[in-house]
Design a protein that fits this description.
By secondary structure, the protein is α+β, with helices and mostly antiparallel strands. The chain has two domains: 97 residues, Glutaredoxin (3-Layer(aba) Sandwich); 106 residues, Glutathione S-transferase Yfyf (Class Pi), Chain A, domain 2 (Up-down Bundle). It is 57% helix and 8% strand. Strands 2-1-3-4 form a four-stranded mixed sheet. A hairpin with a 2-residue loop joins strand 3 and strand 4. Helix 1 runs parallel beside helix 4, helix 1 crosses helix 9 and helix 5 runs parallel beside helix 7.
Length: 216
């Protein structure tokens, strides 16, 4: 059965491939699973019909028969469990890959997202300029730890896995901040992820939606 995912009708990321459906697209492309995409508007995402799929009114969702999932990390995990290619066969290596999935979303991503959002929600506050370097220091702390762990390895734990997929997507959220430039091995790590054919197919599919959307 071909799964259906939801994505922004017009993504606020400006066609940079940063919206969270990109993570799911990439995972599906990596395992060779065809999929359909249903585009939704911001207003549709808040309606009861969509809230029945995603209680928080966000994207993406994943529908496959009578299975409905939300949260990009959970969807990627589901895909990785259902199909070969994103989780190792060895039990211990598999557990480590899953650990890196959680690390990407629970440890590395939160300070990056907070730094992204502060400009919009606190940019007009008196403390904004003082708060900004504090948030960036938190990001640098995490990046320093991640950089040390990665070292000169190609991927986080041997072969490419769902942990790398999510970590690369999280690090891509630093686009435009220049912070990642201070960590050459992480920059190269992201570039390796972006060079994967499956990533390119997913990116092209997502950016095509943005380019096709009517301008306001």
């Amino acid at each position: 059965m071909t799964p259906t995912i939801t994505a922004f009708e017009r993504s606020p990321d400006g066609g940079k491939g940063l919206a969270r459906d990109m993570r799911v697209r990439w995972a599906l492309e990596e395992v060779g699973q065809p999929y359909d995409v249903r585009l939704v508007s911001f207003s549709e995402m808040k309606e009861p019909a969509y809230r029945a799929l995603h209680p928080f009114g966000q994207i993406p969702t994943y529908e496959e028969g009578d299975l409905v999932l939300f949260e990009s990390g959970a969807i990627v995990f589901h895909i990785a469990e259902r199909h070969a290619g994103l989780l190792p066969d060895d039990a211990n290596a598999r557990a480590r890959a899953i650990t890196w999935m959680f690390a990407a979303l629970n440890t590395v991503e939160p300070p990056i997202v907070e730094r992204e959002q502060v400009r919009y929600v606190e940019g007009d506050k008196s403390w904004y300029k003082e708060r900004l370097p504090i948030l960036e220091d938190r990001i640098r702390n995490r990046l320093g730890e991640l950089s040390s762990r990665l070292g000169d390895a190609e991927w986080l734990d041997g072969a490419f896995s769902a942990g790398d997929l999510l970590m690369v997507m999280v690090l891509r959220r630093l686009d435009g901040m220049d912070i990642l430039d201070d960590y050459p091995n992480l920059s190269a790590y992201v570039a390796r992820g972006e060079a994967r054919p499956a990533y390119k197919r997913a990116f092209d599919a997502q950016v095509a939606v943005f380019n096709a959307a009517p301008t306001c």
